[in-house]
Amino acid sequence: MKNNQKITLDSSFALSTLIVLLIALYPSYSSWFVTIFFLGFALIYTFEKKSKSLKLIAVISYPLFIVAFVYSIINSMS
């Protein structure tokens, strides 16, 4: 495994762990944490080099981020 991929996998694991802990501590903000999760994954995998499968994760994460963001905004208004 390349060093860049190891850093990316470590950072995505750290982000996932942090989001799970935050959801456990503050369940009322879970939709915002999910929004941050998808944005984080999109950003982490956007800057990964030379791997089309990891770029696909970024391409999928951006629309999921937009959906989660819109849901969070609508949910916070009601």
Summarize the main sheet: none
Helix residue percentage: over 70%
> Are there runs of 5+ residues with pLDDT below 50, and where?
none
Order of helices and strands: HHH
What percentage of amino acids are in beta strands?
under 5%
Total count of domains: 1
Overall geometry comes to flat
Q: Cα-atom Rg, whole angstroms?
A: 14 Å
Transmembrane segments: 7-25, 54-74
Keywords: Membrane, Transmembrane, Transmembrane helix
Description of the structure:
The protein has 78 residues and is an all-alpha fold. The chain has 3 helices and no strands. The protein is flat. The chain starts with a helix and ends with a helix. The relative contact order is 0.14. The model has no long low-confidence stretch (mean pLDDT 86).
SSE topology:
Elements: H1 3-25, H2 30-46, H3 52-77
Could you name the key traits of this structure?
transmembrane helix; 78 residues; membrane; transmembrane; flat; mainly alpha
Summarize the structure.
The chain has helices spanning 3-25, 30-46, 52-77. With 78 residues, it is mainly alpha-helical. The protein has one domain.
